[in-house]
Amino acid sequence: MISSFVTRDGSRWMPKYLSAIDGATCIGCGRCFKVCSREVMHLHGIDDVGEILGPFDGEEDDFGGELNRMIMVVDSRGRCIGCGACARVCPRDCQTHVAADILAA
């Protein structure tokens, strides 16, 4: 079982990995994506009834007129290093992070 990790100076640290983003709360601002060096999440389009349409390819992509809004979706959770940068910049606190020791158990 993992008890903790250490930083370069020997301080104890427990990574918390991004496991989910609440699509009902997310406003699709992209702040988390911009600070993530690992491309763990991407913008996806969502329609009027809340169905995810797919990854957003660019400003002109409106998913055939079905696009209602954008949300961030965790699509590569295995790439997360648990740094927590995304949580620090999220204005809506819509992310769920799980500590490394809980994932290992």
UniProtKB/TrEMBL annotation:
Listed InterPro entries: 4Fe4S_Fe-S-bd, 4Fe4S_Fe_S_CS, FdIII_4_nif, Fe-S_Ferredoxin
Entry keywords, A to Z: 4Fe-4S, Electron transport, Iron, Iron-sulfur, Metal-binding, Nitrogen fixation, Plasmid, Repeat, Transport
4Fe-4S ferredoxin-type domain: residues covered: 17-46, 70-100
Keyword Membrane: no
Record's keyword annotation contains Ligase: no
Highest taxon in the source lineage: Bacteria
Entry cofactors: [4Fe-4S] cluster
MF terms (GO), sorted A to Z: 4 iron, 4 sulfur cluster binding; metal ion binding
NCBIfam families tied to this protein: fdxN_nitrog
Task of the protein: Ferredoxins are iron-sulfur proteins that transfer electrons in a wide variety of metabolic reactions.
Name of this protein: Ferredoxin III
